[in-house]
Amino acid sequence: MQTSLTRALGIEAPIIQAPMGGASCPALAAAVSNAGGLGMLALSWAGADDTRALIAQTRALTDRPFGVNLVLARPQEERLAVCLAAGVSIVSLFWGDPAPFAERIHAAGALLIHTAASAADAGHAAAAGADLIVAQGWEAGGHVRGEVATLPLLGAVLDAVGEVPVAAAGGIADGRALAAALAMGAGGAWIGTRFLASEEATIHPHYRQRLLAASETDTAHTTLFDIGWPDAPHRVLRNATVEAWEAAGRPKPGDRPGEGEIIARTAEGAPVPRYASATPRPGAVGDIEAMSLWAGQGVAQVRRTQPAGDIVRELVEDARAALREAARVADS
């Protein structure tokens, strides 16, 4: 399935695995890339040595293209330098202005992906030299910069960026949604929640079970889990923390129920306070259900755990089937 996105990135399937902080890892990125998509590493909070190690581990698992993601909510100049020195060929930027980084990324022979929340944001990034734009609708899980739904945002972004390939993000978890994005003119999709349920994703078993049981109405768009990343809207599964806060009248930080309480510990023993922006990972102990359970509205289409490569292949096969059916209806 060749599109503007696959040609730009040198891949075979029009699917990019979202770089989910805490859940993405070399095994996941490599599995997606080996299946023809683009695997991504979330490196925004990694130290220099860990950044090099994660890139090297991924490269040892695949000879296909993969990318790295850096969130511009914190300084990333040094981390970007480490990535480019390690030979990374695709850099994704989010939550800030990509323009100051474009020349450096291109000078290293790498491609620049920018995640946009509006047509103006996308147009600015395209003018700055972004090689691919991700149009992230507010249905997306995890941190969400904008408030526009995926389909209206996608149309506006496509009109704003001309020939620059665009990936749709937010609420896309099955082949039908991928087909819809392609039918609108996107070159592919940026998919997170579906890959959270993959065998390779490094998340706690309880978190995975919550994902598999969730419906499309079980998420909340909020700024609640703000410790570590303040004032950053996000979408999570509704849980006891969300419900207690809502029942208390949605108080501001400092007055929220259970504020300061340690609800869990990581596998390494680090404390996790209530309202922390922290992905539940394997080996964590405590009240996992009360942590930040990132998920998009497409979670209702996530019903089983699969190898990431099988997810890529199933998405493509189902998208092809949906497009064939759409063509049959259009011709009837």
Description:
There is one protein chain. With 332 residues, this protein is of the alpha/beta class. The chain has 2 domains: 4-200 and 304-331, Alpha-Beta Barrel (TIM Barrel); 205-299, no CATH class. Helix content is 37%, strand content 17%. The chain is built from 12 helices and 14 strands. Helix 8 links the parallel strand 8 and strand 9 (188-191). Helix 2 (26-34) runs parallel beside helix 3 (48-61) and helix 8 crosses helix 12 (308-331). The protein starts with a helix and ends with a helix. The mean pLDDT is 97.
Q: What are the key terms here?
A:
TIM Barrel; alpha/beta; 332 residues; globular; three-stranded antiparallel β-sheet
Brief summary:
The protein is of the alpha/beta class and 332 residues long.
Give the SSE map.
Elements: H1 4-9, E1 15-17, H2 26-34, E2 39-42, H3 48-61, E3 66-71, H4 77-85, E4 90-94, H5 99-107, E5 111-116, H6 119-128, E6 132-136, E7 142-143, H7 150-161, E8 166-169, H8 175-184, E9 188-191, H9 193-196, H10 205-213, E10 219-222, E11 234-237, H11 240-247, E12 262-265, E13 271-273, E14 285-286, H12 308-331
Parallel strand pairs: 1-9, 2-3, 3-4, 4-5, 5-6, 6-8, 8-9
Antiparallel strand pairs: 7-11, 10-11, 12-13, 12-14
Helix pairs in contact: 2-3, 2-12, 3-4, 6-7, 8-12
